[in-house]
TrEMBL record:
Key word NADP present: no
Enzyme type, top EC level: transferase
GO biological process: response to antibiotic
Protein family according to the UniProt entry: Belongs to the antibiotic N-acetyltransferase family.
Substrates-to-products reaction catalysed: a 2-deoxystreptamine antibiotic + acetyl-CoA = an N(3)-acetyl-2-deoxystreptamine antibiotic + CoA + H(+)
Alphabetized Pfam families for the sequence: Antibiotic_NAT (PF02522)
Keywords: Acyltransferase, Antibiotic resistance, Transferase
Name assigned to this protein: Aminoglycoside N(3)-acetyltransferase
GO molecular function: aminoglycoside 3-N-acetyltransferase activity
E.C. numbers: 2.3.1.-
Originating organism: Heyndrickxia coagulans
The keyword Ribosomal protein is annotated on this UniProt entry: no
Length: 275
């Protein structure tokens, strides 16, 4: 959405101070561990843009807590799987041969939004080293949440998502819906019915750029909004507005458990129907 459209449609001037007040009203607190997914344009016209959003989050959570954001680079994957947009098959080998290796200090996020992209560059923000599914974090537990992020199954048990789960952290959906809620992929990986696949990317191993394969689970976020609606019927989710953006604060552990159970029941019912 263009800046002009945001001003015209939202009709709301949002300051850093307003964001701080709104975050606290929603339930964000000092010392929390929170993973944030955001749409800047949904907030209204923010004075200071993504800088103001990040500073407000840091003021509320403080260094006693930890802020995590996705920093994924889905453009560093096998082009055979690309859909938005697809590229000609004749290009695939050349892309695999020439894609620059992931560099946590340099490689920009892809499709994560302006807040997540700027957060990556903020002082004292760390980044995990996964070449396609990295996360960034700031605060007390940043290092321990990001360390040990495995190449295989990057949203699974050796991922920052599982470390947030261990700490009973929260998810903040800031003007976005469940479809971008990465934590639900951890629930997906814990479902007995999720299939495995092989993915590949450009990365550096022993100082050399290589095209490397790794194991992953097949992801399907198409069901996430449906699962989210079902979750909200049986669990308390804090909802409110941050600026002009409808937002949610969710207990990550409860949603991950619910997602795994929902998928297990769904696929069990589907299998029974086929027999």
């Amino acid at each position: 959405m263009t800046e002009e459209n945001v001003i015209r449609q939202k009709q709301m001037l949002v300051t850093k101070e307003r964001l701080v007040t709104d975050f606290r009203k929603l339930g964000l607190k000092e010392g929390m561990v929170v993973i944030v997914h955001s749409s800047l344009s949904a907030l209204g016209w923010v004075c200071g843009g993504e800088v103001a959003v990040i500073l407000a989050l840091m003021e509320v959570v403080t260094e006693r807590g930890t802020i995590v954001m996705p920093a994924q680079t889905a453009n560093n994957t096998d082009p055979a799987f690309w859909e938005n947009p697809p590229v000609p098959e004749a290009w695939w080998e050349e892309i695999r041969r020439s894609m620059p290796a992931f560099d946590p200090a340099v490689t920009p996020t892809y499709g994560m939004g302006r807040v997540a992209e700027l957060f990556r560059t903020f002082p004292e923000v760390l980044r995990s080293h996964h070449p396609t599914c990295s996360f960034t974090a700031w605060g007390r537990d940043a290092k321990s949440i990001l360390s040990g992020h495995s190449l295989d199954f990057p949203f699974g048990e050796k991922s920052p998502l599982a470390r947030i789960y261990d700490r009973d952290g929260c998810i903040l959906l800031l003007g976005v819906d469940y479809q971008v809620n990465t934590s639900m992929h951890l629930g997906e990986s814990r479902s007995k019915h999720t299939k495995r696949c092989t993915q590949s990317c450009a990365m550096t191993i022993n100082g050399k750029r290589v095209w490397q394969s790794y194991e992953d689970y097949e992801e399907n976020s198409d069901l996430f909004n449906k699962i989210g609606r079902a979750f909200e019927r049986s669990h308390q989710v804090k909802t409110g507005f941050i600026g002009a953006a409808p937002s949610r604060l969710i207990q990550q552990r409860a949603l991950v458990d619910f997602t795994a159970q929902y998928l297990d029941e769904l696929y069990t019912d589907t299998e029974k129907a086929h027999h």
